[in-house]
Known about the structure:
It is built from 14 helices and 27 strands. By secondary structure, it is of the alpha/beta class. It folds into two domains: 9-246, Rossmann fold; 260-471, 3-Layer(aba) Sandwich (Rossmann fold). Strands 14-12-15-17-26-25-24-21-22-27 form a ten-stranded mixed beta sheet. Strand 25 (432-437) and strand 26 (440-443) form a beta hairpin. 48% of the residues are buried. Mean pLDDT is 92; it is low at 1-6.
Amino acid sequence: MNPESPLDVRSAPPRLVVGGLGGDSGKTLVSLALVQAARQKGLEVQAFKKGPDYIDPAWLGWASGRPARNLDTYLMGVEGARQAFLHATPGVDLAVVEGNRGLYDGVDALGTHSSAELAKALEAPVVLVVNATKTTRTVAALVLGCQTLDPAVSIAGVVLNQVNGVRHERVIRGAIESVCRIPVLGVLPRIPAVTLLPGRHMGLVPPAEHGDLAALAGRLADLVGPRLDVAAILDVARRAPARAWPVAPAAGGPDGRGLRIGYLRDSAFTFYYPENLEGLEAAGAELVPISSLTADGLPSGLHALYIGGGFPETHAAAIAANRTFLDDLRRQAEAGMPVYAECGGLMLLARSLRQGEAVSPMAGVLPCDVEFCATPQGHGYTEMVVDTPNPFFPTGTRMRGHEFHYSRLVRTGERLETACALRRGVGSIYARDGVVVRNVWATYAHVHATSTPEWVPGLVRAARAQAERMDRGAAADRAASVNG
């Protein structure tokens, strides 16, 4: 930005953070119902999820009708998270940020990178969701503790969840309003969350696999929405301080014009940050969605393939049955096509996926098998330093990401080449990550393009090199045809 030119500033919209005392407090349920109710009032809503996550943002995107975004001060820094917020909110009437874990839970005892710290960075009031099961006045003590732990966090109201009847509500409401001096903004009865939002090993079942989204919308509107004081909650959001923060100009990107980059997009592979795909499109690349479940093979003319995460383990039989696709993927990878794979993508590229006694053949690009386990094998933030030449990133590149996987690599039969030393996290093998085979990069770490600015240029650069190889090959074929 030219220091002599006027600052580009953008006003932050009405906003709030939906926090909780811990996981499974009901934050997602309240956030979805609030977003849905606000849209029914004609408001344009931008939803966010604090922290690295794919499933909750998918649900928030479903409710809001526009892609939900992640805000993470560990990955992006405080200013980076604020910039991501500003870039996503022009023209919106309301921003709803769903927190993660407990309000003050961060990466250390100080609560660094917690939902509370994000709320302060955005100067957003907090609506606290509290599971009231088998407790009354103690709820007020818990809320009061959250208020006094950091007075800079503006806790504006409480939504009670799992309330057992009118008397239970009356006692808790009276205690909170007399002790904490903030209102109760909603009261949800004992609705088993699983009946609305079923879960499994990694959290909620994604929207792409939900049986009836229209019925769910109706149930949220009937069971949850009327039990929230939506008008009062919207008033809380509108009381957020009016701020006009400087907006950083968009950085110049690589030239991806003329490149075709495929990505797997089906119910087995849904874990993609919008910014990653948008970054490739902003560079000029054409994105080509592909289904691992129904495609006969990779489309012709691709210059690279991006395989995100998801649930290949729940679709293993269907993926394995699509042998023509898997065989074509292996052939093209062996011929040198750049493939960037994360977590579920790594699993797809292995020889097989083992789940107990069941073994499902996969693409066989990587000389190893993957075993699905009953407990997480890696969960949390990762930090990697690229220390080995590879098709995507220069050596010395530092990358922050996150991992959450129940699988692990087994039966390698040979030592795998890896590109990254780990500074934090579990990784894929040998306490390292970034398995490299030819022009394939496979990792358990998920990377966000905002926090790793080298990601888009790396993928575009690899695709450009492939395009040049393809052009040279086509030219050689033409020459041979003429000479023949």
